[in-house]
Amino acid sequence: xxxxxxxSERFGLAVLVTWVGWAGTRSALAGQxxxxxxxxVVAPVSLAAxxxxxxxxxxxxxxxxxxLSLLVATLYLLVAVLATGGPxxxxxxxxxxxxxxxxxxxxxxxxxxLSAPRGSRWPAVGAAIVSVGVALANASVAALVLGGPLxxxxxxxxxxxxxxxxxxxxxxxxxAAAIAVSATAVAALATQPRWPASVARFLDEARRTMWAxxxxxxxxxxxxxxxxxxxxxxxTLGPDPDTxxxxxxxxxxxxxxxxxxxxLLLAIVLTGVWWAAQGRPAAAVVGVATWTALVVHSMTDHLxxxxxxxxxxxxxxxxxxxxxxxxxxxxxxxxRPR
Length: 338
Prior knowledge:
Number of strands: 0
Oligomer: single chain
Shape: globular
Distance between the termini: 28 Å
Low-confidence stretches: 332-338
Number of helices: 13
Number of domains: 1
Structural class: mainly alpha
Helix content: 55-70%
Mean pLDDT: 93
Largest sheet: none
Radius of gyration: 20 Å
């Protein structure tokens, strides 16, 4: 990243600062101070750090050490999961967070694959495949539903990369549609007193209770929310650390920061989509799809509570968005202009 921030960097930073500022203001109005360890602070900091790291990493993507590092990371994640008994699986302590991290590693492996020389692609391909294995080891249905198609997309882009900007436009449109549909579906389910059997097979009764509590709190404080941390205090399941959050980013934000917070969350999400789409066509398709997978998964779980997951999402955005600027570094030596 250049020493001087460009327009896109300044805009993205302004959105994140506004988010933290609103969370702090809402806490103050509720007579409380916003903890620096709150997800309302840690998540945007992690996202910004990830974008910066991904932007710095993009020019070096052709180096074999990058793909090898991703392979080592995915293997470590798989071993840590398999070596941990019970639901609180290492390294994050939450199976779905492990799986969500693995999905982001699938996308990062795809970005590495797109930059790797033809004869050195096996580490990136291996990392992408192992990442899906991590989702399987964590028994995360959502991660498998999202990660499986993402792996297919990664392999397809590696075999025949998108060359036209049309691919970026299609990816961006599908991303916006997927985010809108997932948010709408969660909001609709949260208002139902009972869930259909087809839904109840995958989402337990505790989640239905948490979502119902979040919707009730949001309705009572529609515009501005009840303040960060309010859900844990008022939810019937709040005293249990495992159910102290709403397990849905949009419902948690709506309940605690109202429609203002939801609008800012949407701005962050769409800025991420736009940023990832600034890269080369193939990288943009992979980057947008990977970021979208995290956003959609976050609609049904509390993934933003895990800094490493948000950090990985930021790296995807930064790397994808900077890929166009590093394009000259991806040209094989024999094809460089003389």
